[in-house]
């Protein structure tokens, strides 16, 4: 059974009386342990697809199964639970809270989950070690470089040990050299068995994945 299964997934929005397809009959699988890039230009539907994969939105038609669970049948609180436990999100803009230290930013999702303090300490330390920033744990985001902030964001995504790391344009706010350092980190995490999905418009970033799913005008193209 694939970790992610999309079959005939469609999503549309209304512009006046006419529906406009953001996604049109999209089908693909992602297996456990794959490193996949979803690539397309602006307006291609890749962000809508990311939102559906990440359980931030649901399809209007078709089937999406995440780790054997039919997502369309879930209520809002169940979607929130599956997001918290199954998916680690990494965003282009880092989304770190400026008043919290690196340690506290990584710890926050575990606190929301109700993980006991001692267990949180172990998980946060492990996550910061995995991105080689344990020595910066007391620093706030403004005291870190862009690359370090993204590595902290990756540590936050990893702390709960989700089966999927979902990265939306993870190098988009970084210079080329720092962006490549982030890609090397993602490749190391993949080599350790993590399933990684990168959303990108950049062929140079997509080419570093095992497989590329290309999307244009809401449809997967060969």
From TrEMBL:
InterPro entries tied to this protein: AAA+_ATPase, ABC_transporter-like_ATP-bd, ABC_transporter-like_CS, ABC_transpr_LolD-like, MacB-like_ATP-bd, P-loop_NTPase
PROSITE patterns, per database record: ABC_TRANSPORTER_1, ABC_TRANSPORTER_2
Annotated GO MF terms: ATP binding
Residue ranges annotated for the ABC transporter domain, each copy included: 4-222
Domain of life: Bacteria
Keywords (A to Z) from UniProt: ATP-binding, Nucleotide-binding, Transport
Protein's name in the database: ABC transporter ATP-binding protein
């Amino acid at each position: 059974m694939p970790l992610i299964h999309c079959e005939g997934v469609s999503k549309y929005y209304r512009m006046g009386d006419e529906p406009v397809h953001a996604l049109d009959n999209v089908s693909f699988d992602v297996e456990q342990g794959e490193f996949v890039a979803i690539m397309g230009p602006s307006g291609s539907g890749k962000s809508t697809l990311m939102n559906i994969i990440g359980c931030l939105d649901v399809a209007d038609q078709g089937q999406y199964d995440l780790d054997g669970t039919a997502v369309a049948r879930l209520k809002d609180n169940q979607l929130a639970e599956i997001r918290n436990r199954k998916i680690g999100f990494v965003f282009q803009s880092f989304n770190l809270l400026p008043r919290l230290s690196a340690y506290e930013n990584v710890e926050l999702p575990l606190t929301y989950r109700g993980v006991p303090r001692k267990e949180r300490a172990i998980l946060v330390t492990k996550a910061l070690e995995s991105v080689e920033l344990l020595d910066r744990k007391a620093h706030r985001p403004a005291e870190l470089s862009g690359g370090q902030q993204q590595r902290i964001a990756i540590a936050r995504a990893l702390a709960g040990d989700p089966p999927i790391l979902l990265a939306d344009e993870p190098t988009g706010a970084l210079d080329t050299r720092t962006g490549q350092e982030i890609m090397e980190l993602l490749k190391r995490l993949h080599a350790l068995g993590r399933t990684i999905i990168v959303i990108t418009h950049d062929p140079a970033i997509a080419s570093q994945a095992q497989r590329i799913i290309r999307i244009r005008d809401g449809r997967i193209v060969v």
